[in-house]
């Protein structure tokens, strides 16, 4: 479930135009968290 969520973040990408957006959640932070999950699998 977590992997699917981070993949969705990457699919959406960065959206700085949206209120409450966090820099990196749609790019480098999502990629990092996805790699952590995949190493444990």
**Structural class from helices and strands?**
mainly alpha
Based on DSSP secondary structure assignment, what is the total number of beta strands? Answer: 0
Helical element count? 2
Mean pLDDT: 93
Unreliable stretches: none
What separation lies between the terminal Cα atoms?
13 Å
Order of helices and strands: HH
Morphology: elongated
Helix content: 55-70%
Task: State the major sheet.
Answer: none
Task: Characterise this structure.
Helix content is 59%, strand content 0%. By secondary structure, it is mainly alpha-helical. The protein has one domain. Helix 1 (2-12) packs antiparallel against helix 2 (28-40). The mean pLDDT is 93.
Map the helices and strands.
Elements: H1 2-12, H2 28-40
Notable features of this structure?
single chain, 41 residues, mainly alpha
Short summary:
The protein is an all-alpha fold and 41 residues long. It is built from two helices and no strands.
């Amino acid at each position: 479930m977590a992997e699917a969520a981070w993949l969705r973040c990457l699919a959406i990408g960065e959206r700085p135009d949206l209120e409450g957006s966090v820099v990196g959640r749609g790019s480098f932070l999502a990629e990092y968290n996805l790699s952590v999950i995949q190493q444990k699998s």
